[in-house]
């Protein structure tokens, strides 16, 4: 069948929408800011496009309007699916395993059954929506079986798969009771994209070891097909974040925030989902020791820690939140003064303008995950520093470190190293900070989200027509 690459179906665990309340009190759906939805927006609105995903919640699928011309197809999840697929196999088995097992992965046979069942439902929804010979782009670890299931249902399609999180080395992946099935599922794709070359290498090694297939880091032979593999580091809408951060109201808001923080000499900021992969506890320990040694003083320096609760019914996340909040309380109790906390701790979601203002106020941005597929916060901070100031303290274990080489790079497991690098970033002179920031900003302007989508889709779409559209709409 001829390839019809004018049509694209994105399949992701979540739909790129939020529900909100309209001025008349009615519930309405709108495009959620940030992330993949924004990345693909310029492409999708000029293309016959559909998005298959979950709208959040359980029970029957809500009837959704098209959003910016993109058809939204909701996959319904039951309470049991949510518990065993999303909270279970996706976020208590695969998530910790893929992030270096910094928490113990949990294996339950019931969770695997749910993973298969939900992947089948997503594959059927995509098969029902895709046009003959169309392109389907499957996203992330929740849906690793979908490429194989979809190929069985619709061999006419051209199928891409992209993993947003790290792909672990063989010695970790080999723990998985259903490792062969997961690899075979991914191999249903024509192109498998990872964030980093190391992940592609790990995958190829596993395919040889577990499935006995001929594989290099770029090509794998499966039956009569060749599956291509590559690294496509995801990015952000750099120009959009820079424009937002440079707006007069955002600049004024940043000034106001600094004032409200007590006009300290230095503001350190961290913005994370409340996740054990983000290294929040290690960062707090380093900060606490710097306060105790007098290297950092409360009136001169403040830490703003934003930590939005995430996956709140998963036990490991509940334990983490309790521990972080206890530690923040302890540090503030020990080092804060009346009206002058050592840490400003915020768990609220912010709109993009408020986030941009926070980035503008931060002299040092501490992004210190123990393992992260990419870490978009690091890139957003760089994009927001429109005056080329600001020091980025960045973990070597974030995918972003492979690109933002001029950051103050750190191993977050090394407490002394973390303290030392935080001190270095706090004391760095304007020339050093400026040189580093300029280089990182230049990189991000070249390697933005559209460049990412263009490079992945041009490798997937052999006719090139979809990518031509992306080029002309970006
Ligand atoms: P992850 O995908 O693991 O959550 P990333 O750093 O790659 O981590 O992406 C997080 C995204 O969530 C970023 O786009 C960031 O701006 C956004 N975000 C994080 N915290 C907040 C918050 N408090 N309010 C709004 N958006 C947030
Ligand atoms: O980075 C992986 C990821 O699954 C993202 O795709 C997502 O935006 C983020 O983590 C939050 O996860 P969840 O969908 O579980 O809230």
Question: What do you see in this structure?
Answer:
With 474 residues, the chain is of the alpha/beta class. Helix content is 45%, strand content 18%. It is built from 17 helices and 16 strands. An eight-stranded mixed beta sheet has the order 5-4-1-6-7-8-10-9, sandwiched between helices. It has a six-stranded parallel beta sheet with strand order 13-12-11-14-15-16, with helices on both faces. Helix 6 crosses helix 7, helix 9 (248-260) crosses helix 12 and helix 10 runs parallel beside helix 11 (315-335). It is globular, with a radius of gyration of 23 Å. The protein starts with 7 loop residues before the first strand and ends with a helix. Bound molecules: adenosine-5'-diphosphate (ADP) and 6-O-phosphono-beta-D-fructofuranose. The site of 6-O-phosphono-beta-D-fructofuranose has 8 residues, from loops.
């Amino acid at each position: 069948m001829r390839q019809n690459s004018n049509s694209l179906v994105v399949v992701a665990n979540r739909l790129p929408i939020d529900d909100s309340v309209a001025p008349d009190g009615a519930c309405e759906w709108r495009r959620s800011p940030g992330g993949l939805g924004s990345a693909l927006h310029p492409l999708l609105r000029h293309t016959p496009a559909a998005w298959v995903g979950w709208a959040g919640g359980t029970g029957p699928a809500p009837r959704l309007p098209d959003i910016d011309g993109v058809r939204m197809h909701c996959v319904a999840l039951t309470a049991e699916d949510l518990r065993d697929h999303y909270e279970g196999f996706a976020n208590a088995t695969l998530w910790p395993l893929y992030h270096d097992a910094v928490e113990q992965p949990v294996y339950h046979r019931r969770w695997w059954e749910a993973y298969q069942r939900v992947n089948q439902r997503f594959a059927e929804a995509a098969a029902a929506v895709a046009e003959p010979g169309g392109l389907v782009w499957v996203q992330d670890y929740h849906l690793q079986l979908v490429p194989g299931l979809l190929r069985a249902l619709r061999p006419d399609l051209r199928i891409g798969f992209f993993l947003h999180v790290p792909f672990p080395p063989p010695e970790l992946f080999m723990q998985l009771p259903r490792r062969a099935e997961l690899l075979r599922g991914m191999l249903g794709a024509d192109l498998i994209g990872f964030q980093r070359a190391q992940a592609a290498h790990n995958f190829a090694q596993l395919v040889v070891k577990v499935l006995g297939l001929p594989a290099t880091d770029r090509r794998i032979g499966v039956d009569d097909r060749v599956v291509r593999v590559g690294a496509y580091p995801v990015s952000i809408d750099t120009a959009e974040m820079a424009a937002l951060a440079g707006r007069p109201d955002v600049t004024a808001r940043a000034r106001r925030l600094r004032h409200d923080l007590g006009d300290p000499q230095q503001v350190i900021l961290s913005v994370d989902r409340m996740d054990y992969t983000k290294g929040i506890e290690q960062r707090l320990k380093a900060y606490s020791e710097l306060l105790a040694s007098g290297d950092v003083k409360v009136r001169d320096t403040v830490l703003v820690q934003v930590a939005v609760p995430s996956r709140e019914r998963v036990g490991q996340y509940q334990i983490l939140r309790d521990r972080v909040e206890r530690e923040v309380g302890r540090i503030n109790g020990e080092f804060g003064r009346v009206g002058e906390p050592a840490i400003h701790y915020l768990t609220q979601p912010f709109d993009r303008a408020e986030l941009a203002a926070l980035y503008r106020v931060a002299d040092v941005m501490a992004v210190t995950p123990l393992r992260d597929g990419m870490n978009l916060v690091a890139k957003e901070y760089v994009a927001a520093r429109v005056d080329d100031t600001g020091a980025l303290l960045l973990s070597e274990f974030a995918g972003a470190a492979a690109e933002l080489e001029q950051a103050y790079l750190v191993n977050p497991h090394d407490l002394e190293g973390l303290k030392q690098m935080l001190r270095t970033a706090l004391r760095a002179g304007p020339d050093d900070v400026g040189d580093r920031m300029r280089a990182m900003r230049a990189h991000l302007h070249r390697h933005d989200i559209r460049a990412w989508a263009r490079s992945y889709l041009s490798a997937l779409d052999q006719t090139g027509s979809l990518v031509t559209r992306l080029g002309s709409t970006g």
